[in-house]
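Sequence of ATP-dependent 6-phosphofructokinase (Cryobacterium roopkundense).
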Amino acid sequence: MKIGILTSGGDCPGLNAVIRGAVLKGGRVHDAEFVGIRNGWRGLVQGEFMTLDRHSVRGLSRQGGTILGSSRTNPFEGANGGPENIQRTLDAEGIDAVIAIGGEGTLTAAHRLTDAGLKIVGVPKTIDNDLEATDYSFGFNTAVEIATEAIDRLRTTAESHGRCMVVEVMGRHVGWIALHSGMAGGAHAILIPEQPKTIEQICEWVEHVRDRGRAPVIVVSEGFLLAGLEQAHSHKGLDAFDRPRLGGISEIIAPLIEERTGIESRATVLGHTQRGGAPSAYDRVLATRLGMAAIDAIYAEQWGSMVSLRGTEIEVVSIADATIGLKKVSPARYDEAAVLFG
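Predicted 3D structure, token representation.
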């Protein structure tokens, strides 16, 4: 069997470990051949391929990014897009099945293509950890570690100058990165998309911290909705799936805090630093296991499925189940953290 592998959407620590796990197991156990599909769905639409063998995945588990490249291309658009054209491209290359590694957008596209008859198995990739059908996705642990280190560093400069630091982390629809890194870094407030808050409440937390002689540190998800706003802050246009490119809410909140409390405030947007660099040990192991499990799903002909972590075991679930809704931070989890605010 000849298997194509693609990585689509935003890059993420652990992508290369998935590729390595799949290629090594597929080659050793099933004598499978592999083709790398370059630049996500764009490579599948335009026929951009590369050699992918045991030699090319040597030492990949510790390497960040993706050797295949990625993009936010919609595979249903363009002259060569759509299931019929893509199937012709696969047939011309002799590819029997595809492993699609990506997040919500990638997996939704994979589900539509499998409904049209293509043979695809998905691997969940999202640092946001927002897919309902898996307990954790690789990349999340690394992103939290990076954000926590940044919070620790910003705390020292905040204390030196008596400033309020507003640290913005990724999280379009859910606040898992903010929740975990904020708790780990001892943040004095955590602002997430699931829990809109007023600027008055935020300033009350900040003033409590100042009154105790401390420098406030606030962690906010990029998708946080400040009470009074109708939608998350966006000034960067739309992506390939017509979703607003978020970012910059911290740069709105910090001046408001300074204006209302008199505390000098600074915003720091961590942005893509959370995606970069080497994956954590946890993410290397999880990504490798998911890549190996994807091979099992292919040989079981479980098309339209996705490999998933449940507890400590890897399971196979329907992509439809994985993309039916987002895994949001529950009120109970937020209330648990909120006891520590202020």
